[in-house]
Amino acid sequence: MMHTAKDSISVVIPALNEVASLPRLFASLEQQTLRPREIIVVDAGSSDGTQALVRAYAEKSEIAVRLIEAQDSRPGKSRNIGTRAAAHEIVACSDAGVRLDVDWLRHLTQSLRNGSHEVAVGSFAPDGTNLFEKLVGLLLIRPPKKVNVLYAGGVSIAFTRSALERVGGYPEDVYPCEDALFLRKVVEAGIEVERAHEARSLWRPRSSVAALWRQYRSYAWGDAQIGLGARRHALRAAFWIACLAASFGIAGSIGRILGLAALAAYLLRPTIAAFRATADVRSFFLGPLILATKDWAQLFGYLEGRVHRARGGGRDFTKRAVSRT
């Protein structure tokens, strides 16, 4: 396939201990109808053979593949490093834990290649392999058109290098939610973000309650650091507090009935819809468990994050977690 200058695109991938997941991403990049001219993997100090895997892939791929080693680099910094090292003006970013539709890069960069936009975000869809993962996707992942643009660019975003530099790049001291903060800076700079819904990334949801708890706790903690979602988190807390208080009889017997009914409706209505999609009776146990785990992880993470922020702590969840162990 002949490439023009406008079709010459670099793909940047942050990585840390991704030896198990990178082959799937690499395979999907090879199959793109518009293939990237180069792939830059920025490794943050992997200890599982990720660097050797990238080097081996570089030797056999027709795409130019580069490995940049950036010890202890968070995703935001890795994307900045990769973008500034890129050979082409248009840069697309993805993550190691996904696979991409064959037209992902074509759709994602279309508006950048025709000059109508400088930033575009794609969509993401769950790619569960077992019942728990499928239920997480069905219950927790919103349709692409209902996702706030600030949360849409985590695993699927393209921009011009000049646009990235104009807003100062990704924040390097924030993790997670560095992608949301970057897009907020883009919007505040008056740069219109194209929603390329057809550019789909497929990612595997968390496969256990513990992993789901860690994920949503860290997301909410990140929200607290960058000042996003305060109203949403407050409403969630108010709902649970009111329902539990009523269920324990604080508002009398009628209040108890109403509190239990509200909780049952909240947990069972989406679970019934998920059961229709899975036809597995275990959904009636796992569905409410998944919903409650997500909510309470967010409640705990947001409160923890607000306290941490008030104390003047850093904005990197992993470093904060390390400092407390």
Short description:
The chain has helices at residues 22-30, 50-60, 75-85, 104-113, 131-140, 161-166, 178-188, 209-226, 230-247, 252-278, 283-310, 317-324, and strands spanning 9-15, 38-43, 64-69, 90-93, 98-100, 119-126, 157-160, 193-203. By secondary structure, it is of the alpha/beta class.
Radius of gyration: 21 Å
Average of per-residue pLDDT values: 94
**General form:** globular
Main beta-sheet annotation:
8 strands, mixed
Low-confidence stretches: none
Helix content: 40-55%
What would your notes on this structure say?
An eight-stranded mixed sheet has the order 3-2-1-4-7-6-8-5. The chain has helices at residues 22-30, 50-60, 75-85, 104-113, 131-140, 161-166, 178-188, 209-226, 230-247, 252-278, 283-310, 317-324; strands at 9-15, 38-43, 64-69, 90-93, 98-100, 119-126, 157-160, 193-203. 51% of the residues lie in helices and 15% in strands. The model has no long low-confidence stretch (mean pLDDT 94). The relative contact order is 0.12. Helix 5 (131-140) crosses helix 10, helix 5 (131-140) packs across helix 11 and helix 9 crosses helix 10.
Tag the structure with descriptive keywords.
325 residues, alpha/beta, 8-stranded mixed beta sheet, 12 helices, 15% strand, globular
Set down the secondary structure blueprint.
Layout: E1 9-15, H1 22-30, E2 38-43, H2 50-60, E3 64-69, H3 75-85, E4 90-93, E5 98-100, H4 104-113, E6 119-126, H5 131-140, E7 157-160, H6 161-166, H7 178-188, E8 193-203, H8 209-226, H9 230-247, H10 252-278, H11 283-310, H12 317-324
Parallel strand pairs: 1-2, 1-4, 2-3, 6-8
Antiparallel strand pairs: 4-7, 5-8, 6-7
